[in-house]
Amino acid sequence: MKYTPRKINAFLFFKLPSAFLTGVRVKSISDTNSVVSVTYKWMNQNPFKSMFWAVQGMASELSTGILVMKEISESNRKISMLVTNMSGTFTKKAIGKIRFECNDGMLIREAIKKSIETGEGQTVIVTSEGINEEGVSVSQFKYEWSLKVK
Q: pTM for the full model?
């Protein structure tokens, strides 16, 4: 499958409806990075008049996960993927349109390549940063992905 924003957004609608309903949308995918956006609105608010942390988590995880899925697809191998750890830091209220960027595609590619070469599971820690419309970071998530050739 060719990984395009349109195909991933359709996937969200059918397989991850909570992400779709809260406004999470893939904007771009390349070999090295991905951008996922979500706009603050009634459906994804918290009682403090900002975006619920879990919605930010869905968008940030998707920005890392689509890079993992894309690399697995391009490897033509069956590889399991699992988030084994995550952490999040929140530095500013998330209001307006927030874009989550992951620029760790090369780290993911190297981990998958090493898993294929050695047959052993690999872990890779990747970062997704949430940036508001003014270009200010509102949150940062780190995900540890476990990758293993089946």
A: 0.95
**Nearest Cα to 134, choosing from 91, 99, 101?**
99
Q: Given this model, what pLDDT does residue 10 score?
A: 95
Residue type present at position 71: E
- DSSP secondary structure letter of residue 22: T
d(CA 72, CA 78): 7
